[in-house]
Design brief:
Number of strands of chain B: 22
Largest sheet of chain B: 18 strands, antiparallel, barrel
Largest sheet of chain A: 13 strands, antiparallel
CATH class of chain B: Mainly Beta
CATH superfamily of chain B: Porin
Strand order of the largest sheet of chain A: 6-5-4-3-2-1-13-12-11-10-9-8-7
Mean pLDDT of chain A: 87
Distance between the termini of chain A: 79 Å
Strand content of chain A: over 45%
Mean pLDDT of chain B: 90
Number of strands of chain A: 13
CATH topology of chain B: Porin
CATH architecture of chain A: Clam
Radius of gyration of chain B: 22 Å
Number of helices of chain A: 3
Number of domains of chain B: 1
Low-confidence stretches of chain A: none
Number of helices of chain B: 1
CATH superfamily of chain A: Lipoprotein localisation LolA/LolB/LppX
Helix content of chain A: 10-25%
Largest interface: A-B, 37 and 52 residues
CATH architecture of chain B: Beta Barrel
CATH class of chain A: Mainly Beta
Oligomer: heterodimer
Shape of chain B: globular
Helix content of chain B: under 10%
Strand content of chain B: over 45%
Low-confidence stretches of chain B: none
Structural class of chain A: alpha+beta
Shape of chain A: globular
Radius of gyration of chain A: 21 Å
Number of domains of chain A: 1
CATH topology of chain A: outer membrane lipoprotein receptor (LolB), chain A
Amino acid sequence: MLLKKNITLVLIILLSSFNIFAEKNKGLEIAIMADSNISGFIDSRSQMKMLLKNKKGQITERSMRSKIMEVEGDGDKSLIVFETPRDVRGIAVLGYAHKTETDDQWLYMPALKRVKRIVSKNRSGPFLGSEFSLEDLSFQEIEKFSYRYIGEELLDGKDCYLIERTPLDPYSGYTKQKVWIEKENYLTLKIEHYDRKFSHLKTQYFRGFNKYLNKFWRPSEIEMINHQTNKSTTLLMEDMVFQNGYTEKDFSQNSLKRSK
Amino acid sequence: MNGLFKNLNRLIFLFFMASFSHNIFSITEFLGEISIEGRSFSNEGFFNQAKFHSSLSVSPEIYIESDDLKKSFSFKPKFRKDSEDSERNLIDIQELHWTIIGNIFETKIGIRKDFWGVTETVHRVDIINQTDFVENIDGEDKLGQPMINISFERLNGTFDIYALLGFRERTFGGKKGRLRAPILVDTDNPIYESNAKEKRIDFAFRWSQYFSDFEYAISHFSGTSREPLFKIDLSSPVPQFQPLYNVIDQTGIEILYILGSMAFKLEGFSRSGQEDRFSASTAGFEYTQIGIFESRIDLGWVAEFNHDDRMENSPISLGTRLTFNDIADTQILSGLLWNKDTDEKNIFIEASSRLKSCCKISIEGVIFTNGKKLNKFNPYKEPEGLFDYFQEEDFLKLEFIYYL
C-alpha cells in the first residue's frame, strides 16, 4: 500500500512537472506562431505619427518615418528618423537587433553632424517624452524571452491565448509581460508590462490590423497606457510599404548621417 | 566672399535648371532656423566692453532629394549680426553640397560639415571644419568646409577620404567683443606657412570600425592647422596677435568600449609641424541612470581627463545631463572644467525646453572662478592660469530659436 501510494505520488509529481514543461512549450509555440505572422517580410517602411496624451487629455503630436530590414540569422536592422517637432528634425536612431546579445544602437545628432553610439542597456527609459521606451519600439526577437502558457481568455469578444514571457536581458525594464494572442490569426492584441518591482506599469494595445502581401499582419495603431502616470501614447502607422529592396547600405552609419 | 556668392548663384541656377528639366528631383524641403540671443555679463569688460550683447542669426535651408534617394542637394547659409562686436558678424555657407550614392562608394561634393570623435567635453580629433570660436567658446560650432569626400563602407566599418579645397580662418572676437584675450587677434592679416595660403588643398582620411561593444577609428590629416599659433606684431602701437597657420600632420585615434551601462572613451592625436611634435588626448566615461528617484528623469554623468603636452596642467571635465523625458524635451546640462593645479574652475549650467512645436528656448549661465585677474598696468603679461583672461566674463545667456 505504502509503495503504491509512493508511486502514485511520484507519478503525480512527474506528471505535473511534465505538465509545466508542456505549458512552457505551449507558450513558446504560440509565440513562434505569432512571430511567423510577422516574420519573413524582408523589409518595410512606414510613416509614423506619435500622439502623446497627458493626464488632462491634451495631445502633442510627433511624426517620424521608419524602415526595417530582416537579417538572415540575426535580428532586424532598423532606422527611425524624426520629422516633427522641428527642433528634433533629422535626429535618427539606427538599430541592429541581435537574437540573444544586446542590440547595437547609434544616434545621429544633425546639429553636430555626429553619430553617437548609444549604450543600449539604457533602453528602458521613456523615449522622447512618450510612454514607449526604446525597448518597446525595438523588434521583439523570440530568443529574448522565456515563455509560460497561462490559459485562454476572451478579449473584446475574441478568443485569445494568454501567455507570460520573461525578458532574459538583465537590463530590461520589465520583469514580466502578459501577452494576449488572438487564436484565429495569432495576432498580438495586448501586452501588460510589469516593472522591476513586479507592479503593473503599462498596458499596450494593438489595433486596426491590416494584412499585407496576403501574409503579413500589421497593426495600424499601437497604444501604450502608463498606469503610474495616467499618460498615454498612441503610435499610428501610415503608408506601410513592403519589400523596398533595401540592402545593408540603407542601414549603415553613412545612411544614418544622410537621414534628413 | 562676394566672388563666392556670385559663383554660388550661378551654380544654384544651373542646378535648378538641370534638375527640373530632367524632373528627377521630387522631394524639396524648405527649412531653417532663426535665433535671437542675449548675453548679459556680470561686469563691464576689462577693456570697457559693454555688459549686454545681443545677436540674431538666420540659417535657411533647402534640401532636395531624387526619387530613388540616390542623389541629394543641400544648401544652408548662415548669417549672424551682433549688436556690439563686428568680428561676430558672419556670412557663412554651412552647407552647399551634392551627395551621390553609388554601388561601391558615396561621394559628397561641396561645402559641408563632418564630425570626428567620441568624447563629450573636449573634441581633440575633430579637424575637418574650422571652429566658429565667437559663436561659443565650447568649440562645437563650425564653419562650412569645401571638400570632396568619398566614403567606402564595409560590413563593420567606413573608410572616408577627403580632399579639403581651401581653408577657413578661425573666428576671434574683436575690440568690443567679450571672452577674448587682452591682445586682439588680427584676423585680417593671417600668416600661412603654405605658399598657396588659404587656397591650399589639404587631405585627410578616417577609417572607423565597430565590433559589437567596441568601436575605434584611426585618422590622419595633412594640411593647414585649424588651430593657429600666434605671432605678436610689435611694430603696432597696440600689440596685436597675428594668427600663424602652419602646415601640420596629425594622426588621431578614437576608442569606445561599452561595458555594462558604462561607455569608456578615448580620443587623442599626435601632431607635427607646429614647433615640436606633441600629443593631446581626452579620456573618460559616460554613465546614465535611468529614472532617478522613481521618476521619468534620466541622469547622465560624464567624467573626462585631459592631457596636452603643450600645457603644464591637465584639467578634468565633469558633466551631468538631466533629461526630463517630458513632452517639451526639457534638459538641463551642467559642466565643470577644473584645473586641479590652480583650483581654477569654469562652470556652466544650461537648461533648454521646447515651446509649442515651433520654438525652443535655452538659458545658460557661465562662471569662471579662482583665476588671476588681469593686471591693470600690464594686461599683456603671459597668463598664469587657464582662465586669467575670463575673470570678468561671467555671463547669463538667453537664446530663443524659431524653426521655419
